[in-house]
Amino acid sequence: EDWEYLVEKFDFEANQDPNFVLKNSRPAISADRFSGEGVDAKWIVYGDFLGDQKCSILRLTVQPGCKTSFRPESPALFHTNGGSGRVGKLEVRYHQDMKLGEIYPEIGFITQAALANGGVEIENTGTEPFVLTFDFPQQAHSQTPGVASAK
User: Fold this and answer.
1) How does DSSP classify residue 148?
2) Please, which residues bridge with residue 130 across strands?
3) pLDDT score recorded for residue 50
4) Which of 9, 11, 39, 131 is the most exposed place for a label (fewest CB within 10 A)?
5) Average pLDDT of the residues in 11-17
């Protein structure tokens, strides 16, 4: 029963399209809602794919000594892609030389509980740009990033 559901939902045609990336790639666009002094935010995966809001990824770059309040509409998984800092109470940093079996403080979650309490503060505690990517699930936004609202 579960397999039938997955097979029904899977888009075999799109999955086998050798030009899928070419047809669906988009340039990064500004995410002004999350940008501020010393903070740059860009949607790097956004819009509708195959007619639906499948996923979205936000890249947030916080300059050394800067911080920002972050409160997206939906919980999200984040990855550290450069630098070091703090996301809420969690200290995170980017690692270039990972070893299998080791634990690294570079991935975390923005939970529903954190959002209900006003979001999280993100601070760059290092000397180089602190770069995070936030992965949002399907239907995470009331307005799909990169898609003009119907008026």
Assistant:
1) P
2) 62
3) 65
4) 9
5) 81
Strand ranges, E, within the chain: 29-30, 39-45, 56-62, 67-70, 76-82, 84-87, 90-93, 107-110, 120-124, 130-136
Arithmetic mean of pLDDT, 116-139: 94
Compute the residue count for the chain: 151
> Mind listing the domains of the chain with CATH numbers?
27-136 (2.60.120.10)
pLDDT in tens, 60-86: 999 999 999 999 999 999 999 999 999
Stretch among 4-18, 25-39, 127-141 having the lowest mean pLDDT: 4-18
Residue that the structure tokens 């050394």 belong to: 64
The tokens of 35 are what?
């940008």
The C-alpha atoms of residue 47 and residue 115 are separated, in whole angstroms, by 23
| Residues 6 or more apart whose Cβ sits within 8 Å of residue 100 | none
Residue 95 in contact with residue 103, Cβ under 8 Å?
A: no
